[in-house]
Design a protein that fits this description.
Helix content: 25-40%
Largest sheet: 3 strands, antiparallel
Bound molecules: FE2/S2 (inorganic) cluster
CATH class: Alpha Beta
Strand order of the largest sheet: 1-2-3
Shape: globular
Mean pLDDT: 96
Oligomer: single chain
CATH architecture: Alpha-Beta Complex
Distance between the termini: 41 Å
């Protein structure tokens, strides 16, 4: 990995992932595996009164995947279910201040794991 390809914010999320790990008492768990590279995101969310109040993730993947999962946990907290459903990978990339162009596709893990977690809520 070429560190210089990454901006300061993305690099910080990779080196110091926010909200990493499992979430005891999670309302739902979503997973997504990139079929091309095999990288995996497991997303835990806790929902109270229709709003996400906590999110954590465990990511086995590239630097971009780890940074995106970290950003995702920040972006999800405080959102309603509907707002979370509309979260797109481009927003995750923006939250990181951008990613190297050839790594932007890695942000799809965050979007897909979110959808899987929301499906698992059994609303
Ligand atoms: S290379 Fe697999 S998600 Fe980045």
């Amino acid at each position: 990995m070429a560190f210089e390809e990454y901006g300061a914010r993305a690099l910080d999320h990779f080196l110091n992932p926010r909200n990493a790990g499992e979430l005891p008492g999670a309302s739902a768990v979503g997973t997504y595996t990139n079929p091309v590279c095999g990288d995996l995101v497991k997303l835990f969310i806790k929902v109270e009164e229709g709003r996400i109040v906590a999110a954590r993730s465990k990511t086995f993947g590239c630097a971009a995947a780890i940074a995106c999962s970290s950003a995702l946990t920040e972006l999800l907290v405080g959102r309603t279910i509907d707002e979370a459903l509309h979260l797109r990978n481009e927003e995750v990339v923006r939250h990181l201040g951008g990613l190297p162009a050839h790594k932007e596709k890695c942000s799809l893990l965050a979007e897909q794991a979110t959808r899987d977690a929301l499906r698992a809520l059994h609303l």
